[in-house]
Design a protein that fits this description.
Layout: E1 4-5, E2 8-10, E3 13-15, E4 20-24, E5 31-36, H1 40-59, H2 62-78, H3 80-91, H4 95-115, E6 122-125, E7 131-139, E8 142-146, H5 154-166, E9 169-173, H6 179-192, E10 199-201, H7 206-215, E11 219-225, H8 228-238, E12 244-248, E13 253-257, H9 263-275, E14 285-291, H10 295-306, H11 327-342, E15 346-349, E16 353-356, E17 359-362, E18 365-368, E19 385-391, H12 394-402, E20 406-407, E21 409-413, H13 417-426, E22 431-434, E23 449-450, E24 453-454, H14 459-464, E25 467-475
Parallel strand pairs: 1-5, 8-9, 8-11, 9-10, 11-12, 13-14, 13-21, 14-19, 18-19, 21-22
Antiparallel strand pairs: 2-3, 4-5, 6-7, 7-25, 12-24, 15-18, 16-17, 20-23
Helix pairs in contact: 1-7, 2-4, 2-5, 2-6, 3-4, 3-6, 4-5, 9-10
């Protein structure tokens, strides 16, 4: 693919800047394109554009808004290879994963096009004969979004689709690592005919965006996916104008294997949960707790499968694991492995990374004889490392799993409906995978408990975050 020099998209126009950011392929360090370094003035212009477009967009019928979304869905599916290639070039994930993400990202467009038609109100009996009570749902207003680099398309559509379906207008700041995917999505929005100002994208420094959003009374909602630390800061900033917020924040996902688990099913789920995007996913399993009765067998079967994984440039055929996003992420993964080994863990396979041709690659790793004082069991590794700790009972596993401030996703494996029901209810996580390692779906609510976030994305709940409830009391 030729070099891509794309522009910001504001008020239906493609807008440059005095300075540009280079976009780098993490697999080899090559510059694959550039994007403008937007300013606070650009952010303010995008806010004004979204604010001015809001009245006419919200007045469209649900059927009309759905029509725009359905046109966007069609364009994403028709251009799957183009979007997937851009994603692999700037993110590093293998092409098969990028294609899967395009399908996943598009599924939110399709789902919320349908949900636009299902924004229901209600009538409530009045307390007097001459009173009628109505409840209606209306869009919250202008929505600002901040999205991460690990899922450059899906993290945008998961926010943009329900916002637009609800009648809100939208501006997004994509990450500096993966802005090309976001701007290509804006091209599809333009081709789908979205009116000027309804969608806007600005690549800009974090502070320029967040400070401008913080000070604007026109922006009524902020939605963010990223770290808990940044989420906490954004929540404080949003308090000044009492903005509506929804945040999907850090994870520390446990993966519990009980003695009666189907190990073939469990190992397959572990592979799906852990190694997608080289382990750089918010719901990737990070801590493995395995009952003593199946511990050795689980590690053996898991290791057999992990050793089959191929590491390399995501554009190459047959690659399962691409590069880590940058040197900082690479060093964190190596630090976690070294710390575990220093504290007594055994490397069953992998354990090392290498810098190769300007990219940072880490071998898929299995660690056994892990203990709960190790960094990898207390911090999100965000890399292709599976640390396996032996436990004696399900109760011990659940206790360790819940001993964290995070609560995004948790996984457990048992063939007992009785035990499984109790464990599912006991785990303090917003998403539970019971005998399943890939729970994300457009039709299901995605979000965390505790310090892993506020609100839900996907499902019927996903559009609720973009609606206000209005009560009308009518006297006859």
């Amino acid at each position: 693919m030729e070099r891509m020099d794309l522009l910001n998209y504001i008020r239906g126009d493609w807008v440059g800047a005095d300075e540009n950011y280079d976009v780098v392929n993490p697999a080899n360090g090559e510059v694959i394109g550039s994007v403008p370094k937007g300013t606070e003035r650009d952010v303010a212009e995008a806010i004004d554009a979204a604010y001015e477009a809001l009245p006419s967009w919200r007045e469209l019928t649900a059927e009309e808004r759905a029509g725009y979304l359905e046109a966007l869905f069609d364009l994403m599916i028709e251009n799957e290879d183009e979007l997937a290639t851009i994603m692999t070039l700037e993110n590093g994930k293998p092409m098969k994963e990028s294609r899967a993400e395009v399908q996943y990202a598009a599924s939110f467009i399709k789902w919320f096009a349908e949900e636009a038609r299902r924004i229901y109100g209600k009538t409530i009996p009045g307390k007097a004969k001459n009173q009628r009570i109505q409840v209606i749902r209306q869009p919250v207003g202008v929505v600002a979004a901040i999205t991460p680099w690990n899922f450059p398309a899906a993290m945008i559509t998961r926010k943009m689709a329900p916002a637009l379906a609800a009648g809100c207008t939208f501006l997004v700041k994509p990450p500096l690592e993966t802005p090309l995917t976001a701007l290509k999505l804006m091209e599809y929005c333009e081709r789908a005919g979205f009116p000027a100002g309804v969608v806007n994208t600005i690549v800009t420094p974090d502070e320029a965006f967040s400070e401008t959003i913080k000070n604007s009374e026109k922006v009524r909602k902020l939605t963010f996916t990223g770290s808990t630390e940044v989420g906490s800061l954004l929540m404080k900033q949003s308090a000044e104008h009492i903005k509506n917020v929804s945040f999907e924040l850090g994870g520390q996902a446990p993966f519990i294997v009980l003695n009666d688990a189907d190990l073939d099913k469990t190992v397959a789920a572990a592979m799906a949960s852990k190694f997608r995007n080289a382990g750089q996913t918010c719901i990737a399993s990070n801590r493995f707790y395995v009952e003593a009765g199946v511990y050795d067998k689980f590690v053996e079967q898991l290791t057999e499968q992990v050793k089959k994984l191929k590491v390399g440039n995501g554009l190459d055929e047959g690659i399962d694991i691409g590069p880590l996003i940058n040197k900082e992420g690479f060093e964190k993964v190596q630090k976690h492995v070294n710390d575990a080994v220093d504290k007594g863990a055994e490397v069953v396979c992998g354990g090392k990374g290498e810098e190769k041709n300007g990219g940072y690659f880490f071998a898929p790793t299995v660690l056994k004889n892990v203990s709960d004082d190790m960094l990898c069991m207390n911090e999100e590794t965000f890399g292709p490392v599976i640390p396996v700790q032996k436990v004696e009972t399900a109760e011990e596993a659940v206790g360790l799993a819940n001993a964290t401030r995070f609560g995004l996703a948790g996984y457990f494996f048992t063939e007992s409906v009785t035990r499984g029901t109790k464990i599912a209810e006991a785990l303090d996580y917003g998403i539970i995978g019971w005998n399943h390692g890939a729970p994300s779906a457009a039709q299901a609510p995605f979000g965390g408990m505790k310090e892993s976030g506020i609100g839900r994305e996907g499902g019927h709940e996903g559009i609720e975050a973009y609606l206000e409830t209005k009560y009308i009391s009518l006297g006859l």
